[in-house]
Structure formats: C-alpha cells, structure tokens
C-alpha cells in the first residue's frame, strides 16, 4: 500500500488498490508541487486520503502521453482491445469487495449499494468489450460505374472525461470503456471528493493490459483541469457528467477547438402514479429509484405526481416504506440511507424543505434537515406540494419525496413536462393504452414505465434539452467516440471497375 493520510480501518484483500497517486504515462505519479487534495469520508468527516493536485504542465504531459497512448491503442486489433477490456471487467469482479469498500469509504453510500455499483460499472466494460468487435462500417451503392463508396468509423482520438462524485466507478467505466472499445485513449478527471475508486480502476486497467497511456486518471483543481482539457488541441472529445451550469461552461470552453462533447447534466424527473396503478409496485419503484444513493442521483424522481383517486393510498404506503429505511453509516449492512456528500448538500435540502413548508406543503414524515450529525438527513415526505415551490423547479439531490395531487391524465402530463430538464421520467399504470400514450407524451431522454430502475449498460443513457446530449451505454455509446470517414474510390485505371 502506498502512504495514506489516515488509512481507514477497513480490511482489504488487495491493499494495493488504495492509491494516493495519479496514473498517467503508464505510471503512478506523486505530483511535482506536493500540493494535495484531501478526501473526506462523509460518514465520519475524517480525512482518509490525500491525492495530488496536478499542475498545468503535468496535466499537459498527461495529454501528450495520452496521444502516444492513442497511437498504441488504436493499432491493436479490435479483438485484442476486446480481450483486454474483458480482462478489466474480470478484475473488477474479482476485486468487487475491496472496490465496494473504497467506494463506501470515500462516498458514503451503503456498502450493498457500492457492491451494486461495482457490478453496474463492470457491466459497462463487459458490454463495450463485446461492442469493440462490432465497429462496423457501411458500403453504399455507387451512383457511377467504377466507384466504390464506403463509410469507415474511426476512433476520434484522445478523449477526456470529467466525472461526478455520486457514482465514483460507473460514471467512469461507461465513458472509458466506450472510448477504449472505439480505439481511443482516455484521460479521466474524477470528482475531487471521490478520486480513490477511479485510481483503483486505473490500477486494474493497467493490470488488464490497458497500458502505455491508453487509460489515465488525473486529479487536481476542477477549473485548471477543465481549462487544460479544453484548450488542448490533442483532446478531440470531452464527456462530462454533472451540473447543467458546469456543462454550459465546458461547452463554451470547447467552442474554440470544436471538441466533440457529450453532456449528461441535471434532471428533474417526474414520477407519475395514475389511478389504475398497482400501488405496491409503484411504491417499490419509488423507493428503489428515489432513495438510491440517498436521493443523490440525476435520474431519481424529484417530483411525485399522484392522481386524486389513488393519492391517499399511495402516500400512506410510501410513508410506511420510507419509515423503514434505516439511516446510518454505510458500512452497517442494515443501513439503506447514509450521509449526504457534504454540508452544502444538506443546506440545499433544508432550503427546499423550508420553502415548501412556507408555501403550504405538509410534512408527513421526517424533520427539518441540518440537525443530525455527519450530514445525515432522514427521509422526508411532503404532500400538498405545488409547482411554485423550489423543490419542484430544482433538483433537490437528497432524500425528499414531494407529492402533488392531480386529476386528469392531460394535467399530469402537462405538469410533468413543465420543466426545461429532460433526463428521466417514470409513470405507473396498468392500462395498456395509457402506457403507450404517456410513454410517448413525456419529454425525456429515458422513461420508466412501471419500472423505477432504468439504468442499464445495454441501453442508451442520456437526456434532452437542459439535461444535455449524447448517449452512454447501448450500441450508441461507442459512436460517441468515433468519427466517420467517407471514402469514395474511383476506378484506378480505365480497365478497372
Ligand atoms: C447519475 O445519477 O448521473 C447516473 C445514474 C445512473 O447511471 O443510474
């Protein structure tokens, strides 16, 4: 194990997975300046590690090396890239428990959710290991005799990713595996709050043969890294998951060099329960989706719209299910809800809560946020919510379920669509016609119909409008890292055809 700030009292089968150095140019790098970023366990408020804050020249070097990594990686056959990705997937599986512990230590999520995230993260690598073999091009029927027209997808080049703290592994693998499958090299800048999962992934990637600068993880000040990434002529693609505000800024910064972009930004997901829904199923979906990662996901329902005829029944059942969610330290196997990432996150939940109460909402479960230790917030259920409230307009990113009652299907759809965001939406109904109608009417990149868990490596994940653009996962995921070359072959001589 390399030196840590305060090695957490966690047992690891492979202590070498705990890294406090960056990985680029195919090597572990301590950083020239000695400046470090502290990583804090949200469940204890203790510093558990310190990682380098790389200087500009080091970040530039990481990109130069990634250019060489690209030349090396793209020259491998698709089958070879696939085999190495597969090996990375297998190594993640083999080290699942250690990786889950690292994740819970730095991010706080319940250990079982961390295990689930390692499976989820690894599933993207497995998926793209297969997709790597299927980078098919196209032959186009020629309009002139002797011509041959073909379209060849080529790797776009050095790709970079800026990833969030809420899913410290999955948001990396679904970008990196797609890029590597396409033949690109990838440099990841993980969130400063959760770099340790990313560094552990780099360790395993290297062991899997994704080496020689093909995959790197750099840590440092977000603004500096963003600037170096977007100003570099070597970087051809940037993928970002995070807030709409930062996404806009990165888009502006990418404009001079016209880097290709994928942006997975904020959401404001509606969760509609129609009168003809199965209440038990709807509550199960609501709990799984809303309270995953203690409400800190971009796709979790932010607004519950419940039709009048089922409202009271649904609220009663949801309240019961929410009150059974144990709150505490993520390493406790029984715990389902843990600390929010930091005090700022609690402040936002509190602001939304107080604003809703002031504007007439009723709190049927939970208390005022900000009173519990270690940034914990017990699940909150609010009824009598209206669109004028802040929590209806903005993503809360915490364990709050605000319920608004509506009467007609048209009203429910109109309310659900009344947001500039369009990442995920959910609805519950047992009426087949309604399921088709509403599924098509909702303005969102992803829709769960009688389903709260929509995330899946095989399907294209992404939003519309202010939730961004680009897709991750599915067969579309690899295309984000390819550019098309159209080749038009004329006859080489007068006799050829
Ligand atoms: C996110 O919250 O940004 C990602 C959630 C997921 O992949 O399910």
Structure write-up:
By secondary structure, this protein is α/β, with parallel strands linked by helices. The protein has 15 helices and 22 strands. The strands form six sheets. Strands 14-15-16-13-12-18-19 form a seven-stranded mixed beta sheet, with helices on both faces. A hairpin with a 4-residue loop joins strand 3 (36-41) and strand 4. It is globular, with a radius of gyration of 24 Å. Succinic acid is lined by residues 166-167, 170, 241, 264, 297-299, 455.
Outline the fold blueprint.
Elements: E1 22-24, E2 27-29, E3 36-41, E4 46-52, H1 56-74, H2 78-94, H3 96-107, H4 111-131, E5 138-140, E6 148-155, E7 158-162, H5 170-182, E8 186-189, H6 195-207, E9 215-217, H7 222-231, E10 235-241, H8 244-254, E11 260-264, E12 269-273, H9 279-290, E13 301-307, H10 311-323, H11 343-358, E14 362-365, E15 380-383, H12 390-393, E16 400-406, H13 409-417, E17 421-422, E18 424-428, H14 432-441, E19 446-449, E20 464-465, E21 468-469, H15 476-479, E22 482-489
Parallel strand pairs: 7-8, 7-10, 8-9, 10-11, 12-13, 12-18, 13-16, 15-16, 18-19
Antiparallel strand pairs: 1-2, 3-4, 5-6, 6-22, 11-21, 14-15, 17-20
Helix pairs in contact: 1-7, 2-4, 2-5, 2-6, 3-4, 3-6, 4-5, 9-10
Bound molecules: succinic acid (SIN).
């Amino acid at each position: 194990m390399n030196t840590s700030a305060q090695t957490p009292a966690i047992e690891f089968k492979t202590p070498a997975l705990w890294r406090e150095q960056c990985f680029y140019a195919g090597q572990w790098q301590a950083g020239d300046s000695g400046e470090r970023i502290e990583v804090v366990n949200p469940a204890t408020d203790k510093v558990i590690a310190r990682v380098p804050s790389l200087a500009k020249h080091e970040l530039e070097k990481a990109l130069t090396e990634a250019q060489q990594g690209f030349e090396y990686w793209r020259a491998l056959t698709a089958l070879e890239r696939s085999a190495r990705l597969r090996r990375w997937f297998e190594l993640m599986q083999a080290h699942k428990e250690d990786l889950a512990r690292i994740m819970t230590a730095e991010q706080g999520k319940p250990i079982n959710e961390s295990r689930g995230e390692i499976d989820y993260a690894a599933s993207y690598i497995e998926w793209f290991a297969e997709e790597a073999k299927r980078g098919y091009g196209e032959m186009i029927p020629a309009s002139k005799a002797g011509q041959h027209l073909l379209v060849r997808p080529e790797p776009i080049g050095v790709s970079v990713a800026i990833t969030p703290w809420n899913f410290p592994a999955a948001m990396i693998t679904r970008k990196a595996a797609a890029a590597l499958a396409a033949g690109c090299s990838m440099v990841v800048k993980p969130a400063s709050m959760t770099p340790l999962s990313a560094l552990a992934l780099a360790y395993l990637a290297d062991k899997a043969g994704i080496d020689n600068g093909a995959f790197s993880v750099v840590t440092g000040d977000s603004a500096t890294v963003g600037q170096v990434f977007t100003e570099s002529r070597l970087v051809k693609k940037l993928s970002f998951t995070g807030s709409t505000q930062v996404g806009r800024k990165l888009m502006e910064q990418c404009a001079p060099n016209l880097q290709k972009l994928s942006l997975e930004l904020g959401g404001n997901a509606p969760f509609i329960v129609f009168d003809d829904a199965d209440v038990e199923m709807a509550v199960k979906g609501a709990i799984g989706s809303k309270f995953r990662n203690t409400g800190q996901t971009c796709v979790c329902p932010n607004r519950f719209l419940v039709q009048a005829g089922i409202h009271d029944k649904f609220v009663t059942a949801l309240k019961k299910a929410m009150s059974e969610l144990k709150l505490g330290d993520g390493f406790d196997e029984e715990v389902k809800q843990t600390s929010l990432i930091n005090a700022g996150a609690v402040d936002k939940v509190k602001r939304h809560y107080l604003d809703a109460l002031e504007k007439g909402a009723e709190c049927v479960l939970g208390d005022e946020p900000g009173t519990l230790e270690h940034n914990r917030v017990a699940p909150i259920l609010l009824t009598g919510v209206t669109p004028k409230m802040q929590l209806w307009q903005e993503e809360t990113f915490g364990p709050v379920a605000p319920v608004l009652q509506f009467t007609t299907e048209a009203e429910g759809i109109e309310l659900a669509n009344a947001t500039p965001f369009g990442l995920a939406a959910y609805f519950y109904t047992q009426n087949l016609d309604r399921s088709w109608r509403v599924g098509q009417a909702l303005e969102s990149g992803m829709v769960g119909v009688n389903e709260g868990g929509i995330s899946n490596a095989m399907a294209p994940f992404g939003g519309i409008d202010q939730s961004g653009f680009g897709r991750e996962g599915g067969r579309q995921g690899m295309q984000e890292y390819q550019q098309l070359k159209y080749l038009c072959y004329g006859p080489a001589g007068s006799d050829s055809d």
